[in-house]
Design a protein that fits this description.
This protein is mostly helical and about 290 residues long. The protein has one domain. It is about 60% helix and about 5% strand. It contains nine helices and two strands; from the N terminus they run αααααααααββ. The protein has helices at about 1-30, 55-70, 75-95, 95-105, 115-135, 140-165, 190-205, 210-230, 235-260; strands spanning about 265-275, 275-285. It has a two-stranded antiparallel sheet. The longest helix has 28 residues, at about 1-30. The chain starts with a helix and ends with a strand.
């Protein structure tokens, strides 16, 4: 009975996410993107993906090329942020076993990890945006939907490439968090990566006056997805941190390519504190 109630609650919550996304869209996207000042010539505000000179497919291919060659153009600050992210993942790895023990009763080996269920909140957020855009034929909504799909696709492809390289066994397969190169597919979490990619784009695509709505929903869905992956014993904490970092960075990349100047919207970093390091996340609330 308790399991049925939990399942019913999740279904209703996921439906609520889609409904809120649909009704949030008119207020949020009725204005131009807050990430850059609207130009005097409104035609110049149209994202490259919908300009006749830049067809969507060409724009996507350019983004793929830019995404995978981005490290070649990083400056010192970006490399420092990358190093901080690696530090955050290493710090999370230190607590992998502790977090697993918090959520898992008994051996924790085998059983369902609820992969499909945990993908539904981010899917509901995306579909809610798409439904609104289709019903109201809103160009800004279509732009955000395209950006969310692109960010999710890029982050997912990258996570599977990293999974193939790392081959880490997950907490549902072993109680040892150091089983790397052992025919596993745990690192990083593709659910966390896709949810944070979709959530970041949704969160930062709204207008300045209503951006708190999109941020609460976008980052809330992403954080909930990460929590559920830990709760369902699907990933180690470091898998989820790595996936989240990949998703946020991919979302920011796509925002930059779509709207321009969005890279300062939010960021992860590692802050030295007495006795160690602290993982921090900052976001501009203006």
């Amino acid at each position: 009975m308790h399991g049925m109630m939990n399942s019913t609650f999740r279904v209703r919550a996921i439906g609520a996410i889609a409904v809120v996304a649909i009704f949030a869209c008119p207020a949020v996207w009725a204005q131009s993107s807050p990430l850059v000042d609207p130009p005097a010539d409104r035609s110049a505000a149209e994202p490259p993906a919908y300009s006749p000179a830049h067809p969507a497919i060409k724009h996507l291919l350019d983004d793929v090329k830019g995404y995978y060659t981005a490290p070649l153009r990083w400056d010192g600050g970006q490399w420092a942020l990358f190093g901080g992210t690696l530090g955050a993942i290493a710090l999370a790895h230190h607590y992998d076993s502790n977090v697993r023990a918090h959520f898992v009763a008994g051996s924790g080996i085998g059983g369902s990890t609820d992969d499909l269920q945990d993908a539904l909140p981010a899917a509901a957020l995306f579909l809610g945006t798409y439904i609104y855009s289709t019903e109201w034929q809103d160009r800004s909504g279509f732009t955000a939907t395209w950006a969310m799909a692109e960010a999710a696709g890029l982050s997912t492809v990258t996570t599977y490439a990293l999974k193939y390289a790392a081959r880490r066994r997950g907490p549902n397969d072993t109680s040892d968090p150091n089983r790397w190169f052992a025919s596993g597919s745990s690192f990083p979490s593709e659910h966390a990566a896709a949810a944070f990619a979709i959530g970041t784009v949704f969160a930062e695509s709204g207008s300045g006056g209503y951006r708190w709505v999109t941020r609460a929903l976008g980052y809330g869905v992403a954080g909930f997805t990460a929590y559920e992956r830990l709760k369902h014993n699907a990933h180690w904490l470091s898998d989820v941190v790595a996936g989240a970092a990949l998703g946020v960075s991919t979302g920011v990349f796509v925002l930059d390519r779509t709207y321009g100047g969005a890279s300062s919207a939010s960021a992860f970093n590692v802050v030295p504190v007495d006795g160690g390091l602290m993982l921090a996340y900052h976001v501009d609330l203006r």
